[in-house]
């Protein structure tokens, strides 16, 4: 009988790996074995390959030879990343045998277990590949009998049932997966720090996990406490802390948060709840994760932590403050959103919406030059109070006064007029050295940094791809002067490697052409023209390269870069080298009917809720991908297309749901993007792309979500003309370049978060068997007395009506131990 296996259509009846016998399965079954003649009898074989595990049993013969016929049932099919169990059994269960499994051909896998039952994780493959295993038993008299079995492994496929829309106050994952809540807002990071009361009474956030956890990365640790990129059982979790649910940080909410005066203790708590945390994670066995409160690696990096500036703008007059009169140092990092990782195992944290934290009094305008006012306006440093009004907490302590950028001294060395210029950078952190000083890399430019994906190819220049997360901002690329040498990845002088590759090079900005091509425009002093006057804003004349790097938005304007729909995370396919850029959304003001272009092609309405509230513009966002010409990071040209368009599949027409989304994979406002690591099957050959959402348009149907995708390549679709519709009923057409449509096979919803959350940071262990996901600001619209979410307490049962929500990381594992998503 020939069995058709469900996973991929593989028929095992025509696979015969034993050349020494020609007996059929039927003849073997008909033959009567004697206990004297047979050492083995088949224990039976079943295959459960479609959703995960293949369980195999070896079969033996009775002819006294050391070869055995393999029955059809002894072979099986599965796909990469899934768990396979091998089981052999002696005749009638007789004891006294020494049993063993060994692999005899195919890509090498690690067998777990001993004796007659072992398991392994199917390896990544590019095409169907056979793995052959031999089961042996040695009798008390020394006789050895063997049997073989073959497992055919096919390329990785998504192996979970799509999670439906959800408005529940829990993290929902597919059947067969488990969720563990890890570090949460306020969790202590040092011995002697009390557990978080979560009632607004707690302080000392310099030693607690911060709020609004965003991008994260897991850095492996060895048993001895050194860097170990292969460790999947012990590591350091580095997480950004972007902002605050300020209403929950204090017993009854904040005092005078909009105007001041602010109590200094409240302001200090809020300041320290920003920044970055480093915490040690450990697996107690079988992916039972927890964190180590008193680890020597634990660290908080806050807006008060000393930093140094490196690169071309270091020492510029534009960075001079009362704290650093020579412009080479500063304090702190804030509004840390997305991130990047270097090959030499440092973390790049990115300062995003920093501008709103600063106060500028009305009298300040008259004290500024026209150039200064142009730069301040272009970056949005215009508030009269600053976010949370910290500068009103104390008039003499620079922890608070540095947030006042008003000119009050005789020179920049006597006040904090230039303090806004000290933010908006990419900051490099060595997570393995808690005493190291973070370095701000000015060669990468200053803007609303959403992320910094590093592409490092041996023998090429190193590239860093960065989005500027505001409407109608740009995509940037930094190309190092130094040629990357792979051996540098092992350096123990990690920040020195950053000096080598991140302090000298060229910053470029992207221009997307209508025909699917693009150019990288260099932002180099002498080649960048003056920024033209616009309305009441005068012409801006650049003074030097430091001026361009402090104000790259102005330089990008001047060279004619393409304004995008909120450029957020960047991620790189580890196999193809293609770069993915999430474009979260835009509104009618930023993307009007007559303001579309090929790379930002949609203007439409997505009515929300029972009241059908209008949402014109591009409310659901899209994802652009590009491939460098010659696959070289230093290329000056590229090809691009739009990989996916967000849409509400329930009511989106053909001119909106351009990717063919369904209820199982529709999404809105893509934000985080991440490819699985190349160290496991999910990141090999056709890597899994993870897409996180920060949505306000589709939240009448579902909370924010995480999707898993197996994308194709740039150019797998074609040209498309869209008919856009404006609020008056007017229409306009827009030509663009689209990728292949989504299908159930290549895009599925993997997770839905709790109420009012954003799905933020993401990473996996090197083996891909644990995925870490950030859940940011659940219940962000609630009040201290009436929280609108109770997560994470609600994850494991009913929570009290006044339990306050907390941002947190979750660890998600597959119950059978396989690679997540496959």
UniProtKB/TrEMBL annotation:
This is Phosphatase. Residues 1-20, 590-618, 778-802 are annotated as: Disordered. It holds the Pfam family PhoX. PANTHER family: DUF839 DOMAIN-CONTAINING PROTEIN, SLR8030 PROTEIN. It comes from the Bacteria. Residues 608-618, 782-797 have a biased composition (Polar residues).
């Amino acid at each position: 009988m020939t069995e058709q296996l469900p996973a991929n259509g593989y028929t095992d009846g025509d696979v015969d790996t034993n050349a020494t016998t020609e007996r059929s399965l039927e003849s073997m079954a008909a033959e009567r074995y004697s206990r004297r003649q047979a050492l083995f009898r088949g224990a039976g074989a079943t295959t459960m390959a479609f959703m995960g595990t293949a369980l195999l049993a070896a079969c033996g013969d009775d002819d006294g030879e050391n070869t055995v016929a393999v029955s059809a049932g002894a072979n099986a099919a599965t796909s990469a990343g899934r768990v396979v169990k091998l089981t052999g059994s002696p005749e009638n269960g007789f004891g006294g045998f020494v049993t063993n499994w060994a692999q005899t051909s195919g890509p090498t896998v690690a067998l777990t277990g001993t004796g007659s039952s072992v398991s392994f994780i199917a390896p990544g493959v590019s095409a169907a590949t056979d793995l052959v295993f031999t089961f042996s038993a040695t009798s008390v008299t020394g006789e050895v009998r063997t049997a073989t079995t073959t497992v055919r492994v096919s390329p990785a496929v998504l192996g979970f049932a799509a999670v439906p829309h959800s408005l529940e106050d829990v993290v929902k994952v597919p059947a067969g997966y488990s969720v563990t809540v890890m570090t949460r807002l306020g969790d202590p990071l040092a011995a002697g720090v009390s557990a978080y009361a979560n009632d607004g009474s707690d302080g000392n956030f310099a030693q607690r996990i911060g709020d609004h956890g965003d991008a994260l990365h897991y850095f492996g640790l060895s048993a001895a406490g050194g860097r170990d990129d292969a460790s999947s059982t012990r590591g350091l979790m580095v997480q950004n802390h972007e902002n605050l649910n300020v209403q929950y940080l204090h017993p009854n909410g904040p005092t005078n948060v909009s105007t001041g005066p602010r109590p200094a203790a409240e302001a200090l708590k809020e300041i320290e709840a920003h920044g970055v945390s480093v915490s040690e994670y450990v697996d107690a066995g079988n992916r039972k994760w927890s964190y180590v409160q008193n680890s020597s690696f634990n660290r908080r990096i806050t807006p008060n932590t000393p930093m140094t500036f490196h690169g071309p703008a270091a020492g510029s007059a534009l960075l001079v403050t009362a704290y650093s009169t020579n412009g080479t140092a500063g304090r702190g990092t804030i509004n840390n959103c997305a991130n990047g990782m270097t090959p030499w195992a440092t973390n790049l944290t990115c300062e995003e919406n920093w501008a709103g934290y600063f106060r500028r009094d009305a009298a300040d305008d008259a004290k500024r030059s026209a150039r200064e006012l142009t730069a301040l306006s272009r970056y949005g440093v215009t508030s009269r109070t600053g976010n949370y009004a910290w500068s009103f907490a104390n008039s003499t302590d620079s922890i608070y006064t540095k947030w006042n950028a008003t000119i009050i001294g005789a020179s920049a060395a006597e006040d904090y007029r230039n303090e806004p210029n000290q933010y908006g950078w990419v900051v490099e952190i060595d997570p393995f050295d808690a005493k190291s000083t973070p370095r701000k890399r000015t060669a990468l430019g200053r803007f609303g940094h959403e992320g910094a994906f590093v592409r490092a190819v041996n023998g090429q220049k190193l590239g860093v791809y960065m989005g500027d997360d505001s409407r109608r901002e740009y995509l940037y690329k930094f190309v190092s002067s130094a040629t990357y040498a792979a051996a540098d990845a092992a350096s123990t002088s990690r920040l020195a490697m950053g000096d080598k590759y991140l302090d000298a090079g060229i910053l470029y900005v992207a221009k997307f052409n209508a025909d699917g091509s693009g150019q990288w425009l260099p932002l180099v002093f002498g080649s960048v023209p003056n920024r033209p006057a616009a309305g009441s804003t005068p012409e801006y004349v650049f003074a030097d390269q430091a001026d361009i790097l402090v104000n790259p938005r102005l330089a990008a304007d001047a060279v004619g870069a393409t304004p995008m729909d909120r450029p957020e995370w960047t991620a790189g396919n580890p196999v193809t080298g293609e770069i993915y850029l999430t474009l979260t959304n835009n509104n009618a003001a930023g993307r009007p009917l007559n303001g579309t272009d090929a790379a930002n092609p949609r203007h439409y309405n997505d009515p929300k809720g029972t009241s059908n509230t209008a949402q014109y513009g591009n409310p659901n966002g899209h994802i652009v991908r590009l491939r460098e010409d010659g696959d070289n990071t230093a290329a000056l040209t590229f090809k691009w297309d739009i990989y996916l368009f967000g849409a509400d599949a329930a009511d989106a027409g053909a001119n909106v749901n351009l990717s063919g989304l369904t209820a199982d994979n529709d999404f809105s406002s893509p934000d985080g993007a991440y490819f699985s690591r190349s160290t496991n099957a999910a990141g090999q050959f056709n890597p899994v792309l993870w897409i996180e959402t920060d949505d306000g348009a589709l939240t009448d149907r579902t909370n924010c979500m995480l999707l898993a995708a197996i994308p194709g390549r740039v150019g797998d679709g074609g040209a498309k003309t869209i008919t856009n519709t404006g609020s008056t009923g007017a229409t306009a057409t827009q030509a663009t370049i689209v990728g292949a449509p989504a299908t159930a096979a290549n895009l599925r919803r993997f997770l839905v978060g709790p109420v009012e959350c954003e799905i933020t940071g993401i990473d996996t262990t090197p083996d891909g068997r644990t995925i870490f996901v950030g859940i940011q600001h659940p219940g962000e619209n609630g009040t201290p007395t009436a929280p609108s979410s109770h997560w994470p307490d609600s994850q494991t049962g009913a929570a009290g009506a006044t339990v306050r929500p907390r941002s947190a990381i979750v660890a998600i594992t597959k119950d059978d131990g396989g690679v997540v998503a496959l």
